[in-house]
From TrEMBL:
This is Oligosaccharide flippase family protein. Keywords: Cell membrane, Membrane, Transmembrane, Transmembrane helix. It comes from the Bacteria. The lineage of its organism: Bacteria, Pseudomonadati, Pseudomonadota, Gammaproteobacteria, Lysobacterales. It is a multi-pass membrane protein. InterPro entries: Poly_Biosynth_Transport. The chain crosses the membrane at residues 12-34, 46-71, 92-112, 124-143, 155-173, 179-198, 227-250, 262-282, 303-326, 338-362, 369-389, 395-417, 429-448, 454-475.
């Protein structure tokens, strides 16, 4: 199998696994949220967040190291080092897990009574068991990715995710209280662990017998863990919905529930649009940088522009139709989550715009710069959360996530400009903003039609996507090469139908060619 076919095959299986697990996980979370209501769902979400941070700390630097070093050993023909690597990493993971569970238990015993909505002993044991199974599950997934066995990753998702959803639906049909959803979470953790263990074991069985680990390799692994661990943990605090902990503490569990559904839906919608594109940014940027600084600068400008273009219609749709979207998915009890969803999807889009800059910094070996920025903005976000949520509750959380997104993305992009020597294409970005504003104005009247919620959301999506697409073609949003590619795709898959779109693409191509000649 040639490299191109292998890449396409891996991309397909990876996408199947990611999107299946995300979609079914989102359906499960919607079912739980509608069943429990905002108050109980806010507490449940905080418990799951505790488990999530436990998993991240347990695996901090380990899973990325497993992927990196397995791929490296396979590339240089040193596969005999894979077994000692896995043995060492599992030992480190075990010590991390003991530390995490021990510190969490001690913290609960010493200060749990001072905090509202803390887990009791049985709930704590369930969460600890879930961490003890989900962390090795993520380790096994890292092993499959290191072997580039994305079909194995997809099998895990395609089997375990539906079983998890079935358990959730069963608990809802039995009208189970919140405690039993923690039981479901722990049970599904065992399912994910078992299936992933089988897939990873099958791959490792092909590896040659182990050889002693060299001191140089041990030092590289420890250095990797030191640098990456802090970055991963603090990055999780920045990108995760840590605000639900502060809301449960300083406001109410219901407001935590509103924030949870809004933030999860917003980040998920944004992930689905640039997700596939973002997956290829790092190798793309590394390749461009290897060819010279000018190539990297051009790629950085193009990537940033395309990320903004891809994110804009999602933001317009989410902001304009926040209320009907929340009502359709979660019900009228979650109506207060609509403005949070509008702010969260804007913050997610702003955060998406800096992915080109972060890929450039990694490619340029600026990991220490990224580490400093991650720590700084992590401290800023936690400080804003503590101050604003204490004073303004849910509104404070909205201000905190938007402020952090704007400040961190601006900083990353400015540093990317400095490193590459590039200048962003202000004209194209302004045209994208104008197209987005025009699409919003055309979509807002749909809300005045007072149709059923489902029809409102569907029609709104069609109007936003259609009008935004047309406006980007009328305005200077696309380059001459982009238009040519669109024309080729339209001719190949739609045989230039409908004809108005064909004529629109022709005129857009003519205008793009004229602009290119004027600037040449």
């Amino acid at each position: 199998m040639n490299d191109r076919r292998t890449t396409l095959r891996n991309t397909a299986f990876s996408s199947i696994g990611i999107y299946a697990e995300y979609f079914l996980g989102m359906v499960a979370s919607i079912v739980i949220a509608r069943h429990l209501g905002p108050g109980h769902y806010g507490v449940y979400s905080m418990f799951i967040w505790f488990a999530a941070i436990g998993i991240v700390v347990t695996n901090s630097g380990i899973t990325t190291g497993v992927i990196k070093f397995i791929a490296e050993f396979r590339g240089n023909g040193n596969e005999a080092m894979i077994r000692p690597l896995l043995t060492y990493m599992r030992r480190v993971q075990a010590w991390h897990m003991v530390l995490v569970v021990g510190l969490a238990g001690a913290g609960l015993a010493l200060a749990g009574h001072r905090w509202a909505n803390t887990p009791n002993l049985v709930e704590f044991l369930l969460l600890a068991a879930a961490v003890a199974m989900r962390a090795p599950y993520m380790f096994n997934i890292a092993v499959t990715r290191g072997f580039e066995a994305f079909d194995a990753t997809a099998r895990v998702s395609m089997v375990a995710a539906p079983l998890n959803l079935a358990l959730v639906v069963g608990a809802v049909l039995l009208k189970a209280p919140m405690f039993w959803f923690l039981v479901v979470y722990t049970t599904s953790s065992a399912i994910f662990l078992g299936i992933s263990w089988w897939q990873a074991r099958r791959l490792v069985a092909r590896v040659p017998p182990a050889v002693p680990m060299a001191n140089e390799l041990s030092q590289r692994i420890r250095r990797h863990l030191r640098i990456v661990s802090v970055t991963i943990v603090v990055s999780f605090l920045i990108t995760s919905d840590v605000e639900i902990v502060f809301l449960n503490t300083f406001a109410s569990s219901a407001e935590a529930g509103y924030f949870k559904v809004a933030y999860q839906l917003a980040t998920g919608m944004m992930l689905l649009v640039p997700g596939v594109f973002a997956a290829v940014l790092l190798p793309m940027m590394s390749k461009a940088l290897s060819r010279g600084r000018d190539q990297a600068a051009q790629k950085f400008v193009a990537v940033t522009t395309y990320l903004v273009m891809l994110s804009a219609p999602v933001v317009i749709f989410g902001v304009c139709f926040a209320s009907p979207i929340i009502d359709l998915l979660y019900g009228s009890r979650y109506g207060a989550a609509a403005p949070v969803f509008a702010v969260a999807i804007l913050a997610s889009a702003i955060g998406t715009a800096n992915q080109g800059a972060t890929s450039l910094l990694v490619s340029a070996d600026r990991q220490h710069t990224i580490l400093v920025m991650v720590v700084a903005f992590g401290a800023i976000k936690l400080t804003l959360d503590a101050l604003l949520i204490r004073q303004f509750a849910l509104q404070g959380a909205m201000v905190a996530i938007l402020t952090e997104a704007v400040s961190s993305s601006t900083a990353y992009v400015l540093i990317g400009i400095r490193v590459s020597g590039a200048r962003l294409d202000g004209r194209r970005l302004a045209a994208v903003a104008l197209a987005a504003a025009g699409a919003a104005l055309l979509a807002l009247p749909v809300l005045l039609l007072r149709m059923p919620v489902l029809l409102t959301v569907l029609l709104g999506g069609v109007v936003v996507l259609g009008s935004y697409g047309v406006l980007t073609l009328w305005l200077p949003c696309w380059s001459r090469g982009d238009i040519a590619q669109l024309q080729e795709l339209h001719a190949r898959f739609a045989r230039n139908w409908p004809r108005p779109l064909h004529r629109l693409l022709l005129r857009a191509g003519e205008r793009a060619s004229a602009r290119a000649e004027r600037t040449a």
